[in-house]
C-alpha cells in the first residue's frame, strides 16, 4: 500500500499512518490483479457517519475506472453498515479526485481555508459529502 501511496499522491501518508487504519472503526478495501495490488481505499465509520480517508490507484492503472469501482463499493458498504452520509476532504488542486467524487454524487459542503501547505504557500481543503 505504501508504494502505491508514494507513487500516486503528492503528499503521501507514511507507513505508520496507513498501519493505524487497520482496526474496528476502519474498512480497507483493495483491487488486485494477479496478486498485485492496483488500488485501495480506507474509510472510517463512527455510528452513522462514514469518512473516506484515502483512495489511491497506482499511476499505471489510473484512468481505467478503478477509483470509481472502489468508491462505489465503499458507498454500498457504508450504506449496508447503516451510515447515512459519507464525507471526505480533498485538496482544491486535486481536480481529478474532485471530478470522481462529483461523478458519484458528492457535493461541496464547506472549506478549510489555507488548510494544506504547498511549495507555493497554502491551499484550501474542500469538504464534500454524499447522503446515503
TrEMBL record:
Its EC number is 2.3.1.266. Signal peptide: none annotated. Residues 1-132 form the N-acetyltransferase domain. Pfam families: Acetyltransf_1 (PF00583). It comes from the Bacteria. It catalyses: N-terminal L-alanyl-[ribosomal protein bS18] + acetyl-CoA = N-terminal N(alpha)-acetyl-L-alanyl-[ribosomal protein bS18] + CoA + H(+). It is found in: Cytoplasm. Acetyl-CoA binds at residue 94. It is an enzyme of class 2 (transferase). PROSITE patterns: GNAT. Keywords: Acyltransferase, Cytoplasm, Ribonucleoprotein, Ribosomal protein, Transferase. Its main location: cytoplasm. The active site is at residues 89, 101. GO terms for cellular component: cytoplasm; ribosome. GO terms for molecular function: protein-N-terminal-alanine acetyltransferase activity. PANTHER family: ACETYLTRANSFERASE, PEPTIDYL-LYSINE N-ACETYLTRANSFERASE YIAC. Belongs to the acetyltransferase family. RimI subfamily. Acetylates the N-terminal alanine of ribosomal protein bS18. This is [Ribosomal protein bS18]-alanine N-acetyltransferase. It comes from Shewanella algicola. The gene is rimI.
